[in-house]
Every structure is written in structure tokens, then in C-alpha cells.
Write a structure and sequence with these properties.
Length: about 350
């Protein structure tokens, strides 16, 4: 393994360990979901046992409006994690994403840690993953083909993580030409593209630019869950400080930088409502989703699907992954019953109000 691959492998492993063992949540910002409430419907006119939580992603019917977000792959222990995520995704019939596949492009050592996902979850949507800096550099047709083939992906997620790269001791902060390269990539690729942040959110302006480049779905991954500035700051303090590398000053405002998840959803919903050309954009809500009520609120605020990473990792670590997702779905169903929404389409039309109003 060359030096660059060793760094990528170490980084992926330390991300999991840091997220499990350190306090890396936003401390002066929330998702904003707590500011919203539904109106109780005392005559819901539906049967609780007939509520339908199913929906679809890229033409594939899935049992719940929920996916396990992109996290890992590319080092030895990641195979076990990805296998466990995939077993639950297959059992519950929900999509899942793998973590950044940059390491798999660098060499073949740990490709099995990604491939395992498709072996274990043959019939659910599986999403490949690569970062915006790699896209900005320009990926060859062969590299793009490899990303999709390794997991027989139904779609490719491109993560936009400028704040994370900025705080990452070995980060790549060159995002020049990204949108132009993205447009080219979308034209070449045989599967649809999802663009996601990793915890700083996506504004309506950025969503429009991504849609103009051909992206089909925006995963807002807003602020309120894991702060990747804090994750990288922790890694800097643990491993890199002695090397005297550049790191931003860790001012609270930078560590808590980002658009709260609920605001991303309301702002993108307004864009879709006001501008016809953006009506088709699919929206995934993630970034601090932490229970079934958050999921219900996110869908009522404009999401088609929700996703979670950090909480899923912790649940897996505590051997409660399936139980956690089922509990969240039961709570989602409870909110739908109490608001009279019999399916996800009706929940998307259900009024929700800000407590401040
Ligand atoms: C351990 C870990 C590793 C992650 N690695 C990736 C990655 O490789 N690619 C990516 O797009 N997002 C990655 N993420 C970000 C998540 O997909 C998600 O966008 C972010 O953590 C915010 O969601 P959350 O608050 O539910 O965790 C990772 C998250 C975790 C917890």
C-alpha cells in the first residue's frame, strides 16, 4: 500500500471510532425539528393497522421511507460493519449507502468491504459513494464504472463536504470545476446521481445548481447531528497536532457551521413550489434525524425519504440496529395515525406548523 492509501484506510477507521467515542454533535445548533408540531386529528378516519409506510427509490419499492446513510468501507473491519448494515437493510427492505469508495479506486485491497453489501443485500437499492474533490479532479469512465460495478449500485452518491475537508488535517480543499465535472459525470454515468452534504446542509441555491448539473436527488444532510468539523478537529488533536499542520482556529461558530436540517427542507420545498423547473428534485432528509417523529416532520416539511448515519452506527454498536429502526417506524406510524395520514403521500400533504408562529 502506498502512503496515500494508508492515510485513507486509517482515516476511515478513525472516523468510526471518533463518532462512537467522542462528543462530536453540534453544541450550539439543532436540526430545528423541535420547533415544529402537527395538529392533532381527533377523527383520523383511517385504520392504524392499514397505514402504508412503503415508498420507492429509483423505481424500487421499499418498505419504509428510510435509509441507512453512507458511512464506511475501505479497511478490514469495515467489512463486518457493512455486512451488518446490509443484513438489516435487506431484512427491512430499505436502501443503504456505502462510505466513500476513494480507497477502492486507489487499490483493490479492501474492495470486499464494499462488495459485501451487495452480496448480503441483493434486492434493495444500494448506493455507491465518492467525494466532490474526486469529482472536481475528474474521474475517468473506467473509475466511474468501477464505483458502480463493485456494489452493483442503483445510484451514485456524491458527497459535498467543504467544511469537513477544511478541518481535515489531510483534507483536499480544491473544489474548483466541481459543477462542470459533475455535469459531465451525470452524462456519462449509467445510474442516477444523488448529491449530499455530510452535516452542513444544502441551500436552495446549491440545490438548484446541482439539479441544473443533472442531479436527481438532494440529500440535505443538514446541521444538528454529527459535526464533521468536530470529528476532524478531534482527529487533529489526537494524531496530527504535533505535526503542526494547518487547522482552522476551532472557533465555536466554525465548528457549528451549517444550515439546520429543517431549514434546508423548508427552503428547498419553497424552491420547488416557486420554480417549475425544480419540481422534480427528489429530497432526502438527513443530519440529526433521531427518532420517528423527526422522520414524520421531515416528510411533512418536504422530504421523500429520511436517512441516518451516526445514530445507526451507535445502534449497531449496541446491537440494537433493527430494533431502533423498527421503533422509529412505529413512532412514524403513530404520528400518521394521529394526523390522519394513511400513506407517505398523504403525510407529505399534512399541515405542520412552527411553534413560534
Ligand atoms: C462513521 C461515519 C462515516 C461517514 N462516512 C461518510 C462517507 O464516506 N461518505 C458520505 O457521504 N458520508 C459519510 N458520513 C456522513 C453521513 O452519511 C451523514 O451525512 C452525516 O453523518 C450526517 O447524518 P447524521 O447526523 O445522521 O449522522 C459518515 C458518517 C459516519 C457516522
Amino acid at each position: 500500500m502506498n502512503e496515500s492509501t494508508t492515510i485513507t484506510v486509517d482515516r476511515k477507521q478513525s472516523h468510526v471510532e471518533t463518532c462512537l467515542n467522542k462528543n462530536v454533535g453540534f453544541d450550539s445548533k439543532t436540526t430545528g425539528f423541535e420547533q415544529y408540531e402537527f395538529t392533532h386529528n381527533a377523527a383520523p378516519e383511517i385504520n392504524h393497522s392499514e397505514i402504508d409506510l412503503s415508498t420507492s427509490l429509483f423505481g424500487c419499492r421499499i418498505s419504509y421511507p428510510f435509509m441507512i446513510s453512507s458511512m464506511t468501507g475501505g479497511y478490514d473491519k469495515a467489512e463486518h460493519l457493512n455486512r451488518s448494515f446490509a443484513e438489516t437493510a435487506q431484512k427491512l427492505n430499505i436502501p443503504l449507502g456505502v462510505g466513500s469508495m476513494r480507497q477502492a479506486l486507489e487499490n483493490s485491497s479492501y474492495r470486499e468491504s464494499f462488495r459485501v453489501v451487495r452480496h448480503v443485500a441483493p434486492s434493495v437499492p444500494v448506493l455507491a459513494n465518492i467525494g466532490a474533490p474526486e469529482v472536481a479532479k475528474g474521474l475517468t469512465d473506467q473509475e466511474l464504472g468501477l464505483l458502480v460495478d463493485i456494489v452493483r449500485a442503483d445510484g451514485l452518491i456524491i458527497h459535498l463536504n467543504p467544511a469537513q475537508e477544511l478541518f481535515q488535517p489531510e483534507g483536499n480543499t480544491n473544489f474548483k470545476n466541481f459543477l462542470e465535472e459533475l455535469q459531465q459525470l451525470v452524462r456519462t454515468l449509467k445510474v442516477p446521481v444523488i448529491a449530499k452534504e455530510v452535516g452542513c446542509g444544502i441551500s436552495p441555491g446549491t440545490a438548484a445548481a446541482l439539479a441544473d448539473a443533472g442531479v436527481q436527488i438532494i440529500d440535505v444532510a443538514g446541521a444538528g447531528g454529527i459535526s464533521w468539523q468536530k470529528v476532524e478537529e478531534e482527529r487533529y488533536l489526537q494524531k496530527f497536532q504535533h505535526e503542526n499542520r494547518f487547522s482552522p482556529s476551532a472557533l465555536g461558530e466554525l465548528l457549528n457551521w451549517g444550515i439546520p436540517t429543517s431549514r434546508c427542507l423548508t427552503d428547498i420545498a419553497a424552491l420547488k413550489k416557486n420554480k417549475r423547473e425544480y419540481r422534480h428534485i427528489g429530497v432526502i432528509a438527513s443530519g440529526g434525524i433521531s427518532n420517528g417523529i423527526d422522520i414524520a416532520k421531515a416528510i411533512a416539511l418536504g422530504a421523500d425519504l429520511c436517512a441516518s448515519a451516526g445514530m445507526m452506527l451507535k445502534a449497531l454498536h449496541d446491537c440494537r440496529l433493527e430494533e431502533t429502526i423498527v421503533t422509529w417506524m412505529n413512532d412514524l406510524r403513530a404520528v400518521m395515525f394521529l394526523t390522519g395520514a394513511k400513506d407517505i403521500q398523504q403525510l407529505q400533504q399534512t399541515p405542520i406548523s412552527s411553534k413560534k408562529e
